[in-house]
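Budget justification aside, the reviewers requested a transparent look at the raw inputs and outputs of the sequence design task funded under Objective 1. We therefore reproduce one unedited record. The lines immediately below are the C-alpha cells for a 574-residue chain.
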C-alpha cells in the first residue's frame, strides 16, 4: 500500500561529521546470491559493449518484502546530511522505486554558544522512505510530519538539551563494539533512547491507523493524521485525498449535521488537555438530530467556528457529515454495504442492540424509505428511540445512504431547450409574447392565493369587475396598457416553446405561484444540481411551500431521488 512508510531514518550532521543514528525497521536482510550469479550458464555468450544497447535495461528495486534494502548506513548518511543551504526546506529524492522526503532542520545546541565556525549547530533530518508510486498529496503529508518533528526537536533542544543527549546515547551505542552489527546497535539504541522509541511508535502508528499521537521526550505532544490512511477503513481501499475532504467541507451548509463515528467517551485521547475548549463545548451539545446552526447556538459558538471544528473532526475521521435525522429523511441500503451472515458487523450490532438482527433491520430499507414510514403510531417512545439509534448506528458504519429529491425542468417533449440565457432585466415585451398571451392562453379572471391554513381568498381588480359584469367566458386580449401583465413579465425571457408548455399548466393562473416558479427557474434550481433541502435553505422556503409548487408544475418538472454529491465521498457507494 503506497501510503505506508517503508522506513524512518534519523541522520545528524555537526562539527564532528555526519552519521546515521537510527533507522526503523532495522532488520538486516540475509545476503542472497544475485540474480546474475544464480544458475549461471557456463555456455552463455558474454555480452559486449555493443550488445548492451540491444538488451533492455533491468530496473533495480530497493524494496524487498516491504523493507528498504540496498542502501548502507554510510550511503544514507551521506545522502541526507545536506548542506546548510538546504535546511528548513523540503527535501525530496527519488532513487529507483524509493522516494525519500524530509525537512532538514538546523538547531542550536543548548550547551554551546553560537560562533563563527558553526560548532554549536547541528543538523537533524527525519527522513521517510516511501514508495516511488506514492501520490503527491501523500508525499506532502510526510513532509509536513518531518517538519513538525524538526520543530519539536528544536524546541526540546532549546529547553533541556534533549537532542544532544539522545544523539550522544546513539553514537555511544554505535561505537561500543557494534560497528559491524548495525542491527544489534539499533536494538541497544531502542532500549536506551527515548527519541528512538518515539520514532518507532510513529512508524507503527502510521502503518496501523494513520494517526500519530505521541509525546516527544514525554513532554511535547505531537499529533498527526494521514487522511489517505484513516479514511480507508470503510472506503474499500479507495484513497481519499485531502483535496477531496476539503472540497466536501467547502460544501458545508448550516442545514448539515455532524455524526460522530465513535462514542464521545471514546474520544478522550482526541480531546486531551491540550485540545480546544470550544471542541469540548461542541461535543457536550452534540446530537445528530441538530443541524450545525442549532449546534452553534446551543454551544454558544459562532457558526464559522463550528464549521472549523467540524472540518477538524472530519479530517481526522472522527466524524462524518449527514443531514439532521428527522422523519422526512429517506434512506436506502448502500450498494457496497458489507452485509453477509459472517460479517463482523452482525455481532457488533447485536452487542449494541441485544436481540436484534442486523440483516432484518437493514432489510427494511431495501427500497428507499423515510423514517416516518417506519414509525408505527402504536410504537412506544422507547421503540421509536431505538429505531432512531439503529439508523444512527447504520449511518456510522456506512450501511445506509440518504436520498434527496432533485428537480429537473422539462418544458418540452425533447427536454430542455438549448436557450438557457434568461434575461434578468426586462425592458419591453416582444410582439411574439403578446401574440402567445392573447391567442393560446386565456387568463383566469380571478387571482387566487392560498393562505397558511389552506383556505383560499379571492381578490378582484376593478378592471376585472367591469369585464365580469358585461362579458363572460371571453379570454383577455392584451392591449398596450396590459404589456406588463404578470404572465408576460415573468415569462418574457423564456423561449417561445417553453412558454407555450408552461401556459398549459393551470397554476400559471396564480401570480404568486408563477412568480416563484419563474424565479427558481432563472436561478437554475431545476437543473438537477440542487436538492429540495438546499433550495429551501437558499431561498428561505418552507418544505410544504416548495412541495406544493413542484406538484402544481408537475407537467414541466420531473423529480427524482439521488445521493447528495457534496457528502457522497464519505459513503461506500462512491
Amino acid at each position: 500500500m503506497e501510503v505506508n512508510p517503508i522506513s524512518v531514518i534519523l541522520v545528524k550532521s555537526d562539527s564532528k561529521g555526519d552519521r546515521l543514528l537510527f533507522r526503523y525497521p532495522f532488520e538486516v536482510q540475509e545476503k542472497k546470491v544475485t540474480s546474475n550469479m544464480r544458475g549461471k550458464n557456463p555456455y552463455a555468450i558474454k555480452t559486449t559493449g555493443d550488445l548492451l544497447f540491444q538488451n533492455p535495461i533491468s530496473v533495480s528495486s530497493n524494496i524487498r518484502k516491504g523493507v528498504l534494502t540496498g542502501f548502507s548506513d554510510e550511503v544514507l548518511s551521506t545522502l541526507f546530511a545536506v548542506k546548510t543551504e538546504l535546511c528548513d526546506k523540503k527535501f525530496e529524492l527519488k532513487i529507483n522505486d524509493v522516494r525519500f522526503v524530509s525537512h532538514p532542520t538546523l538547531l542550536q545546541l543548548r550547551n554551546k554558544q553560537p560562533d563563527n565556525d558553526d560548532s554549536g549547530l547541528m543538523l537533524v533530518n527525519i527522513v521517510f522512505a516511501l514508495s516511488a508510486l506514492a501520490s503527491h498529496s501523500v508525499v506532502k503529508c510526510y513532509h509536513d510530519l518531518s517538519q513538525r518533528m524538526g520543530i519539536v526537536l528544536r524546541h526540546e533542544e532549546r529547553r533541556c538539551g534533549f537532542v544532544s543527549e539522545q544523539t550522544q546515547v546513539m553514537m555511544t551505542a554505535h561505537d561500543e563494539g557494534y560497528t559491524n552489527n548495525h542491527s544489534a546497535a539499533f536494538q541497544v539504541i531502542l532500549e536506551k533512547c527515548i527519541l528512538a522509541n518515539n520514532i518507532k511508535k510513529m512508524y507503527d502508528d502510521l502503518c496501523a491507523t494513520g494517526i500519530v499521537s505521541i509525546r516527544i521526550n514525554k513532554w511535547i505532544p505531537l499529533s498527526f493524521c494521514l487522511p489517505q490512511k484513516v479514511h480507508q477503513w470503510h472506503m474499500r481501499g479507495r484513497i481519499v485525498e485531502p483535496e477531496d475532504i476539503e472540497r466536501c467541507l467547502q460544501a458545508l451548509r448550516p442545514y448539515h449535521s455532524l455524526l460522530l463515528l465513535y462514542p464521545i467517551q471514546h474520544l478522550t485521547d482526541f480531546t486531551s488537555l491540550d485540545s480546544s475548549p470550544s471542541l469540548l463545548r461542541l461535543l457536550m451539545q452534540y446530537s445528530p438530530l441538530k443541524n450545525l446552526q442549532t449546534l452553534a447556538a446551543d454551544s454558544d459558538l459562532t457558526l464559522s467556528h463550528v464549521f472549523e471544528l467540524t472540518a477538524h473532526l472530519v479530517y481526522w475521521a472522527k466524524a462524518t457529515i449527514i443531514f439532521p435525522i428527522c422523519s422526512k429523511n429517506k434512506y436506502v441500503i448502500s450498494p457496497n454495504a458489507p452485509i453477509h451472515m459472517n460479517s463482523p458487523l452482525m455481532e457488533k450490532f447485536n452487542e449494541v442492540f441485544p436481540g436484534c438482527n442486523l440483516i432484518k433491520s437493514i432489510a427494511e430499507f431495501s427500497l428507499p424509505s423515510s423514517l416516518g414510514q417506519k414509525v408505527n403510531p402504536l410504537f412506544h417512545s422507547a421503540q421509536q428511540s431505538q429505531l432512531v439509534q439503529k439508523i444512527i448506528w447504520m449511518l456510522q458504519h456506512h450501511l445506509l445512504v440518504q436520498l434527496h429529491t432533485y428537480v429537473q425542468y422539462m418544458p418540452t417533449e425533447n427536454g430542455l431547450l438549448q436557450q438557457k440565457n434568461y434575461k434578468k432585466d426586462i425592458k419591453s415585451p416582444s410582439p411574439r409574447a403578446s401574440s402567445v398571451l392573447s391567442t393560446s392562453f386565456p387568463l383566469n379572471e380571478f387571482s387566487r392565493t392560498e393562505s397558511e391554513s389552506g383556505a383560499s381568498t379571492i381578490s378582484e381588480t376593478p378592471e376585472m369587475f367591469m369585464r365580469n359584469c358585461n362579458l363572460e367566458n371571453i379570454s383577455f386580449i392584451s392591449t398596450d396598457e396590459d404589456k406588463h401583465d404578470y404572465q408576460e413579465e415573468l415569462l418574457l425571457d423564456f423561449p417561445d416553446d417553453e412558454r407555450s408548455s408552461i401556459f398549459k399548466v393551470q397554476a400559471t393562473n396564480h401570480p404568486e405561484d408563477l412568480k416563484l416558479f419563474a424565479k427558481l427557474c432563472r436561478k437554475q434550481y431545476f437543473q438537477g444540481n440542487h436538492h429540495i433541502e438546499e433550495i429551501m435553505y437558499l431561498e428561505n422556503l418552507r418544505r410544504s411551500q416548495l412541495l406544493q409548487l413542484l406538484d402544481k408544475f408537475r407537467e414541466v418538472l420531473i423529480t427524482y431521488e439521488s445521493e447528495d454529491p457534496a457528502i457522497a465521498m464519505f459513503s461506500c457507494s462512491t
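Residues 28-39, 47-58, 419-484 have pLDDT under 50 and may be disordered. The chain has four domains: 7-28+63-192, 242-322, 330-407, 411-555. Computational costs for records of this kind are itemized in the attached budget.
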